[in-house]
Amino acid sequence: MEKDEATKQGDTPKALGTPKTPPPEESPGNVNNPIENQKEDSEEKEKGQDISGTEEEDSCPVEPVEIPEDPHPSLDKLCEDIERCISSLPRPSEKDEKEAENNGAKDDKDDEKAVDVKDDMGETNIETPREEKDDENKEEGIEDDEKDLVPDELLKLVDKFLNWVDGICGEGRGRWGKVPEDDTAFLDAVDLMAKMRESLLSVSCMGLKFEERHGGLINRLSSIQHRATAYLEEEFRILLEESKTCTQPLDHHHTNTSGGGDHHNNSSKDNSTNKGKNDPESLPESESGGENQGLFEFPGYSQEVVSNLNKIAKQMISGGYQFECCEVYLISRRHAFDENLHKLGLEKHSIDDIQKMHWEAVEREIVAWVKAFKQCAGVYFSGERKLAEWVFSDHPSMSACLYSNLSRGVVKQLLNFAEAIAMSKRSAEKLFKTLDMYEALKEVVPKMDELFPEECVDELKTETTTVRGRLGEAAICIFCDLENSIKAETGRNPVPGGAVHPLTRYTMNYLRYACEYKDTLELVFKEHSKIERADSTSRAPNRDEYDASDTSLGGGNGSDESPFSVQLMRVMDLLDSNLEAKSKLYKDVALSSIFMMNNGRYILQKIKGSPEINACMGDTWCRRRSSELRQYHKNYQRETWSRLLSILTHEGLSSHGKVMKPVLKERFKSFNAMFDEIHKTQSTWVVSDEQLQSELRVSISAVVIPAYRSFLGRFAQVFDAGRQTEKYVKFQPEDIETYIDELFDGNPNSSIFKKKP
Amino acid sequence: MVTDNQGSFLNRISIRRNQVVSMEGNHDQELEDLEHFQKHVADRFLDLLTPPEDYPSDPFLSIAWIRKLLDTFLCCEAEFKAVVLMGRDPTQISKPPLDRLVPEFLDRVVKALDICNAVSSGVESVRHFQKLAEVAVLALEQRPIGDGQVRRAKKALNSLVTAMAIEDKEGQTTKATERTWSFGRRTGVSAPNKDRAAGQFRALSWGMSKGWSAAKQIQAMSTNLVAPKGNETTTLAQPVYIMSTIILYVMWILVTAVPCQERTGLMTHFPVQRNLVWAQPLIGLQDKIAEEWKKKEKKCSAGLLEEMQKMEKLGQSLIEFADSFQFPAEPERLEEVAGQVAELAETCRRMEEGLVPLQLQIRELFHRAVRSRTEVLEVLDQGGKASPPMI
């Protein structure tokens, strides 16, 4: 191609319509010398008008076709002349006897041919068949055989024409779309060449002699035809790769398409009814009209570009270059798609790498993946599909093939990542990201039928479903692994103060988070857990004991609960029994009750705080849980306070209606000591739930204070005012209340008496 | 954990396990199984190395041959699983040295998965080679044959030959990072013409992640591959070693056969003991292929796949024809070319017939490997739990 540039005779490149000197090697010697015909083409800069002008002038007067010695050959004119000549190529009726002798046997074939030509040329050949003024004419190269079938004039025209095409091809790339008229002219020219070749070949069937004589022409034609198609191919590729300029959708296109809006609206209406048939130019518009604003964001070609692509593709395919056309298209689009994925932050990783990556890094990749996957399913795939359909509007099977090839590659690549994740070592923190991916896949499967063409939809569905299954199984494994984490928590140090155990916090927060994925988890368990249970012997030994507890639970919750709920229950029960075991670590039974209350309350609060878990666990469970908590409360109350209250009974203090002072003194002393002890111990205990804390304090006050007040009211006056009272009555009821309010704060308090001077 | 169709398989295992465990002297049975396994491996690979004479065989390293290789692999894999998983006490697998050997084996499996993907993408490239060759056939079958047809064919063939060379060199040079389908480079678009010519070939397949190297992957698979000694030869260490070796060889053969990302320094020799009966046919294959590979490395062709080599040779020859072509063509020369074109067309046909099934088979191998890995992991898990390390 560079060579061609060099041969230009100093002309600056002009618009497409102007011919350039062809490269020398392109013109076989036995045809007319091309150089002659184009020299001063440089004048026609605004060739649009110029051409039509010259055409009018030139074409009208010529009745019998003369070799136009027009210094400004216009393509239209050339084409017209050529078509006319071709149409008047030998037909039996017009042939003189000599020809008939030569080719007698071919007569019928000739007839057919004539018909063919008629079809090809449309109206042009209605004009009176021309007796070619042909032959014997001057001009180089051509044998001076009178019986020549091809008029010399035609040869010259063809030659001129080929020069023209050749010149265009030599003008460099990336010009497509700059001057639409030129493009159309070029496409027409390529089309014409195909017809010419066809005609010439069929004429050549009439005799070896023809081929001998005009082989050179046919050869030259084929050569330039190839060159022109290669040029088209290159333009096609450049358009595909370099014209994705329009990032803003629609509006831009509408304004850009020039022409009155009304007209376009009309045409778009028309087109929507019979799309794909005619006028690809308005296809994209009709598709995008109004309702779908995002349509043009991807793949981002303007309407003109799409229409140009369509025209070139059409020409390439009709010229037998569909292989080349498809390859260019596929490779360009694949690349563009890849680039888009990259822009979305998707990196390629081998499965092996993902197994070795840090989870934080993998997590980021997953986020990008989910985004990219949704984008593909929502925008990219349909965009690609539409693009292929527009560009190859006349060849639906071709567009389906290209699109499925492309999308198959993308989907497989995306699924491969999911596969790698499903395969990675399981651990609790991976559950949520795994579920994110699962959800993305789940959402796309039902859409696949409309996203992908028939030829690949089954394959892609199967692959997607397989990977989804693996992710689901991984999620179940991870979730069920919570059991193992709970079982593995066997620390023997009680949490100080009977506070909420870290295991409880961890488990409940995990579950709460997990339950935000409740619907997905339900589905996952429903769809992927049966097999797991059937074949997994791994859990069998442990499972039996839970199964027993399951059934007991199941009774409370109705029979048709989801496997996920069952698993959730299993986890809760496991947590319970673990906590129960931990509560035994406390020597103080009251503290053990506080521990159970704390943890129980925490669990209940978490469950109530999340509608999803709440729904899973059910009201019955919660009610039962609450009553259990009340039981612990009672236990605590009994353990701690009933002994104290027994001190405050009025019984045993009076004898014969008289208070026994020494006994009373003892009673007060033990009350004081015991209360002090309780206060000292239990103010170090922890109840962090405010409500529970105040419930406890209120309930304690409610039993202790009235009893103490009545005890005090009944017996305080027994003591002498002053020293004796001071010695035995250490607390006023209000003090008791204050001290009770200091309980469960987790503060190490010293004895009331020491701190109280 | 296990996909649907595998449920039954594991059920079978547990059933058989129960039976076997109840039997005394199942060790003999195990030894027998192991022996059978070794013999089958030897027989199967021997068939590939020296096909039975009375049987029409596919050319060495042809698509059909590769497909047989993959079939062989799948058979061995199934039998391996039966030997290792069925009727075994899961604790066996978690005892030394298996607690080390099995994870190493699983690691090899993961690497093999990546190789499957790379090879699959290589097959995709071959599909493109086929398309280019088809263009040449299409053009050269036309009559009369003129400059246009010849140039079209030449263009396609040049693309083909260049693509093959690039596919092969991919990753070797600094430029290659631009070339691969890795994201983000793409300097070619606005670059001057020369790059653009290459631009056509950059992207024949999706490719692997940047920096991924088939040669390194094969190397990594071969590390720690040591034959069991002494007592170990009668334990599970033996089949694990055999299967590891098979995976390594099969993956290596695939890598040599089709274009594959970064094969510089690909090993051509693996330290497998020659005295092992089952290993001999494998070593035979290795020697034969290694020799081809060394020749290939000089030629820089895209792979040893028989059809591809043929295509390359015919392509070169037809390019020569195209270079010297002058219209009108001499009839004798044309006849000769017609023969080559027919041969090229036949090669394309074989690709057309074979590549898609090959692709599917690679995929099947992939899925199979994933599943087996899961199953082995499960047993490993189970074995780990059964022996109570926890207090």
What does this entry look like structurally?
The complex is a heterodimer of chains A (757) and B (391). With 757 residues, chain A is an all-alpha fold. Chain A folds into four domains: 2-233, no CATH class; 251-257 and 275-287 and 294-474, no CATH class; 489-637, no CATH class; 648-755, Exocyst complex component Exo70 (Monooxygenase), CATH 1.20.1280.170. Chain A has 30 helices and two strands. In chain A, helix 15 (359-391) packs antiparallel against helix 16 (396-423). Chain B is mostly helical and 391 residues long. Chain B has one domain. Chain B has helices spanning 7-22, 26-49, 63-85, 90-93, 98-140, 147-169, 174-179, 193-202, 214-222, 237-257, 280-299, 306-324, 331-386. In chain B, helix 10 (237-257) runs parallel beside helix 11 (280-299). The radius of gyration of chain B is 24 Å and the shape is elongated. Chains A and B meet through helix 8, helix 13, helix 14, helix 16 and helix 19 of A and helix 1, helix 5, helix 6, helix 8 and helix 13 of B.
Question: Could you give the topology of this structure?
Answer:
The complex is a heterodimer of chains A (757) and B (391).
Chain A: H1 2-7, H2 47-59, H3 75-87, H4 97-103, H5 107-121, H6 152-169, H7 180-204, H8 208-242, H9 251-256, H10 261-273, H11 283-288, H12 303-318, H13 322-343, H14 351-356, H15 359-391, H16 396-423, H17 431-444, H18 448-451, H19 454-488, H20 502-515, H21 518-535, H22 540-557, H23 563-583, H24 589-609, H25 611-647, E1 654-655, E2 658-659, H26 661-682, H27 690-715, H28 723-728, H29 733-740, H30 752-755
Antiparallel strand pairs in A: 1-2
Helix pairs in contact in A: 2-3, 3-5, 3-6, 3-7, 5-7, 6-7, 6-8, 7-8, 8-12, 8-13, 12-13, 13-16, 15-16, 15-17, 16-19, 17-19, 19-21, 19-23, 20-24, 22-23, 24-25, 25-27, 27-29
Chain B: H1 7-22, H2 26-49, H3 63-85, H4 90-93, H5 98-140, H6 147-169, H7 174-179, H8 193-202, H9 214-222, H10 237-257, H11 280-299, H12 306-324, H13 331-386
